[in-house]
Amino acid sequence: MKTVAIAGASGYVGGELLRLIAAHPGLTLVAATANSNAGATVGSLHPHLIEFADVVLKETTPANLTGADIVFLALPHTTSAEVAAWLGEDQIVLDCGADFRLESAEQWFKFYGTEHQGTWAYGMPELVLADGSKQREKLIGAKRIAVPGCNVTAITLALAPLAKAGVIELDDIVSVLSVGTSGAGRTPKTNLLAAEVAESANAYGVGGIHRHTPEIEQNLSKASGGEVKISFTPVLVPMSRGILAVNTATLRGGDPRKALEDAYAGETFVKVLPAGEYPATASTLGANTCLIGVTVDAHANRVVVVSAIDNLVKGTAGAAIQSLNIALGLPEDTGLTVNAVAP
């Protein structure tokens, strides 16, 4: 049994990590921390987490984190590096923020405006790489893992096999995502208040400025071995969780469906749907699953790949647990499910 601490347990990602840890037979929670919510109980912030309802959130300090075998960082971007520096080399640390995802210091500064703190093993096991391997091989025994962005996951899993197979043009990729409100975090924002979101859809991060852009391009470049350009626009929609990504690219040649099916044959958590079927976010709620539908728009000579995930599970907390399982040498699906919650 491994002991676990969560820094940032009051937020949506922290709450989802708590839910998954409760279902994991090899993990036991020893500390959950917060900043402004320190002193509150888990039940007051996450009333659905009955098992941990009486756990009191501690302050995020070295003393409250350094005793655990495993530490999850569910903190705002650009704040994880400071906390990670407190932790020992023998601890496994998984950052659910962006601090250690990018390899380019230049791209980090461009999109985040702070000094680059380094790059950790990237926590997307199914990512196909140009040399024919997958990212999971780099997670075996890893002590420091950077969990991918949720929008990044929906786009990368849909397009990386096509980029690797040479099926699509790499300089003409367009993705438009419908994103649930939990994807924007729990910190109150005027444009995300219930009255503003209800019965409305709002584009944000428009015009190539969204911080996930360089991460998506980094992944697709690793898959293809070439330079990639993407136009990516998320749209906030009135649902609590889930991402539906509609990804299109100019068809270069070959069979897009075969590329996807070959890439994900045998994968537990990525499923390519039969021809003519396309996923819905409701089919992924609570599951560590990415569902993919694909077709070719012959009129426009474009591949269309539709992917769906639960942004809090496969998009973040589930990806963290899956990557941790690999690092620990456990079965990859330990504590995770492919089945969605019934509507």
Major beta sheet, strand line-up: 3-2-1-4-5-7-6
Shape: globular
Biggest sheet descriptor: 7 strands, parallel
Structural class, please?
alpha/beta
Low-confidence spans: 188-195
CATH superfamily of the largest domain: NAD(P)-binding Rossmann-like Domain
The ordered string of helix (H) and strand (E) elements is: EHEHEHEHEHEEHEHEHEEHEEEH
Assess the beta-strand content as a share of residues: 15-25%
Secondary-structure blueprint:
Elements: E1 2-7, H1 12-22, E2 27-34, H2 42-45, E3 58-59, H3 62-65, E4 70-73, H4 80-84, E5 92-95, H5 105-112, E6 121-122, E7 144-146, H6 150-165, E8 168-179, H7 194-197, E9 202-203, H8 213-224, E10 230-236, E11 243-251, H9 256-264, E12 270-272, E13 290-297, E14 302-309, H10 313-328
Parallel strand pairs: 1-2, 1-4, 2-3, 4-5, 5-7, 6-7, 8-10, 12-13
Antiparallel strand pairs: 8-11, 9-10, 11-14, 13-14
Polypeptide structure, described:
By secondary structure, the protein is α/β, with parallel strands linked by helices. The protein folds into 2 domains: 2-148 and 314-328, Rossmann fold (3-Layer(aba) Sandwich); 151-310, Dihydrodipicolinate Reductase, domain 2, CATH 3.30.360.10. It has helices at residues 12-22, 42-45, 62-65, 80-84, 105-112, 150-165, 194-197, 213-224, 256-264, 313-328, and strands at 2-7, 27-34, 58-59, 70-73, 92-95, 121-122, 144-146, 168-179, 202-203, 230-236, 243-251, 270-272, 290-297, 302-309. The strands form 2 sheets. A 7-stranded parallel beta sheet has the order 3-2-1-4-5-7-6. A 7-stranded mixed beta sheet has the order 9-10-8-11-14-13-12. The radius of gyration is 19 Å and the shape is globular. The two termini are 34 Å apart. Mean pLDDT is 94; it is low at 188-195.
